[in-house]
Structures are given as structure tokens and as C-alpha cells.
Known about the structure:
Layout: H1 2-35, E1 41-44, E2 50-55, E3 78-81, E4 87-93, H2 98-114, E5 118-124, H3 126-129, H4 135-146, H5 158-164, E6 173-177, E7 183-188, H6 193-209
Amino acid sequence: MRWILLSVIVGFCLSFLGCQKQENEQTNQTIEKKQEILENLVLKSSDGTELNINQKPPKEQNNFKNIEPKKENILKNLIITSNQNNLKVLLFFTTWCDPCKGILPHLENLKQQFGEQITLYAIPIDDLVGEVENLKGIIQVFNEENAINMPIILDENRSKLFNALGGIEGVPLIALYDKDGKYIIHYLGAIPEEMIEFDLSQNLAKIKAQ
């Protein structure tokens, strides 16, 4: 009887240690995943250009105990460059989003206004926020219906960028980066064309003044 009881106790302890080990491994994997940053991530666009994305290490949060830390804006930590020495305008969108469709003509106007001083990139995230069987087919129809002339990024590495951002709060999401790839500003939702025009003009004026 004593041997049976001892065997049960030993078995329970081993089982507990096994679960604890598994939990620790899962925790370590989660920590490693959280600490992972983007290095030389390449996104290929439909016009043949490539965006090279690097991420600055996140700043350490010095928060008091029991105070929820602020969610860091990962967009600010990205360095986005290409072989084109101009401003980059990234549009994250979904094909079913009406405000996304509504802002497209305004972005086309800005492209006409600023010419080669800026490059627009459209990044669909339909398949990253829902189940999509044929994203390329959906995008082709979307392009025809909305007469999109800007490069579109369908590269599989979109998911790595999406995960690094911790997902996206909403669309349309527009992010501006300067000629050196540094973050300028971003906008969430349908915003006036004049607001983007102002920020682009301000940054281009700084470049000319240098």
C-alpha cells in the first residue's frame, strides 16, 4: 500500500514538472516572439521595386507597478527604404472598406501633384484579418473597379510586417516616411487630402532647405 501511495505521489510530481516545463517553454517562446524585431525585411511591389524594412529596438517602458504600459507605436520604429530616394506613402487597406475606396482618388491627386518626389504603395490586408481564398483575384477586380495606378504589395512578407505592428487598429491606415526611411506621421481613417498634402509639403521643404 505504501509503495502504491509513493508511486502515485512520484507520478503526480513528475506530471507537474512536465506541465511546468511546457508552460515555461511556451512562456519563453512568447517572450522571444515579443522581442523579435524586423531586420532587412523585403516587400516586393507590383512595379518591381522593393521596400526594405528595418525596425529599431523598442524603448524600455519605465512604468510604475499596477499601471498599464502604453502600447508603443511600432510605425515610429520602422526604417523603410527603397532604391528610390523619395518620400514613401504606405496605404494599408481592405477591399471591403468604403473609406479605403474613398481615399484612393485623393492619393492619386497627391501623386499627380508631387510626381516623383513621392511613391505610393498600397498594402492589402484582407487575408491577414479574415479568411480569403484568392487575394490576387480579389485585388485584380478591386483595381479594375477603382482604377488604382499605385504599386500594390502582395508579398507574403506582409504578414511579418503585420505581426510586428501588433495588428492594425483600423483602415485606411496611411503612414509617411522620409527619403531616409524615417517615420514622419501616420493617419487612421478617412482624412482630408489637404492634411496629407500639408505634411508632404512640409517635409519636402525641409529637404530643399538642407
